[in-house]
From TrEMBL:
One of its GO terms (molecular function) is carbohydrate derivative binding. InterPro entries: RpiR-like_SIS, SIS_dom, SIS_dom_sf, SIS_GmhA/DiaA_subfam, UPF0309. HAMAP family: UPF0309. This is UPF0309 protein OG222_20400.
C-alpha cells in the first residue's frame, strides 16, 4: 500500500502551524508561563477552561504525568465533551448568557488565581463572559484562541467582543477560520482540523515555561509523575499532600 498523500499534507500543515506559533508566539508563551509561575509562587491556584473540542487542550494539562499538579479543570456541565446527549446541546450551551458567571460564582476560583480560557473562535458568549467575570473577580486570564476569527466572523456575545478582548495575555493558535487544513477533489467539505494539535502544543509550551520560571526562582515545580513507572504513586502522593489545598480534582 502506498503512503497517503493527504496524510503527508496534514502533517506538513500541522508542522507549519507549530513552527509559526513557536516563532511568532514566543513572547506570549513566555508571558503566560511567567504568570503561571507568579501564581504558583504566590500561593494561588490554577484553572483551565474550554468548551467542546477546546476542552481537550484544557484536559490535557490537568492531572497528567509530566504536568503541574496544581492545574484544575474548570468544568461547565454539558460543555466538556461529546458525552452529553445530544452532542449539539454542548454547542448551544456555549451561546447561553449567564452560564459562565454561575459556574465561576460556585467554583473555588478567587482573586490571585489564574485561569486559562481556550476557545478557537472566541466568539461565543461562554468564553467571553468567563473572561470578563474572571478578571472582575481578580483572576489573571490567559486566552488561547485564533485571532483570525476576530476579523472574519462576528461575536455572539452581547458586548460584540471576542475572548481576546478580555484577557491579560493572548496566545494566537493561527488556525484559519473553519479549522480544516485539507481539501480534495471528490470531498465536498474541507477536513483535517489541526486546532487540537496546535492548541495542546501551546498549552504544553506554556507549562514548560512555567516550570523553567519556577526553577529560576528556586521553587521545585509541583509536577506529577506517571503512575506506570516505579515510585510514581509515592511521588504523586507527596505532591498531593503538600499542595492539597490547591488541588480540586480529588476528594
Amino acid at each position: 500500500m502506498s503512503d497517503s498523500k493527504l496524510a503527508g499534507q496534514f502533517f506538513d500543515a500541522a508542522i507549519g502551524l507549530l513552527e509559526r506559533v513557536r516563532d511568532e508566539e514566543s513572547g506570549s508563551i513566555a508571558a503566560a508561563g511567567a504568570a503561571i509561575a507568579d501564581t504558583v509562587a504566590a500561593g494561588g491556584r490554577l484553572f483551565a477552561f474550554g468548551a467542546g473540542h477546546s476542552s481537550l487542550a484544557a484536559q490535557d494539562v490537568v492531572y497528567r504525568a509530566g504536568g503541574l499538579a496544581l492545574m484544575n479543570l474548570l468544568a461547565v456541565p454539558g460543555t466538556v465533551g461529546v458525552d452529553v446527549m445530544p452532542a449539539t446541546l454542548g454547542s448551544a450551551l456555549e451561546r447561553v448568557d449567564g452560564l459562565a458567571s454561575a459556574v465561576l460564582d460556585s467554583s473555588p476560583a478567587r482573586a490571585g488565581d489564574l485561569l486559562v480560557i481556550i476557545s478557537l473562535s472566541g466568539r461565543n458568549a461562554l468564553p467571553v463572559e468567563m473572561a470578563q467575570n474572571a478578571r472582575a473577580l481578580g483572576l489573571t486570564v490567559v486566552g488561547v484562541t485564533s485571532v483570525a476569527y476576530t476579523t472574519g466572523t462576528k461575536s455572539r456575545h452581547v458586548s460584540g467582543g471576542f475572548l481576546r478582548d478580555h484577557c491579560d495575555i493572548v496566545l494566537d493558535s493561527k488556525i484559519a477560520i473553519g479549522d480544516a487544513e485539507l481539501s480534495a477533489e471528490g470531498v465536498e467539505a474541507p477536513f483535517a482540523p489541526a486546532s487540537t494539535v496546535v492548541t495542546s502544543a501551546l498549552m504544553q509550551a506554556m507549562m514548560a515555561t512555567a516550570a523553567e520560571e519556577l526553577v529560576a526562582r528556586g521553587i521545585e515545580p509541583p509536577l506529577l509523575r506517571s503512575g506506570n513507572v516505579d515510585g510514581g504513586h509515592e511521588w504523586n502522593g507527596r505532591v498531593m499532600r503538600e499542595y492539597g489545598d490547591r488541588i480540586f480534582y480529588r476528594h
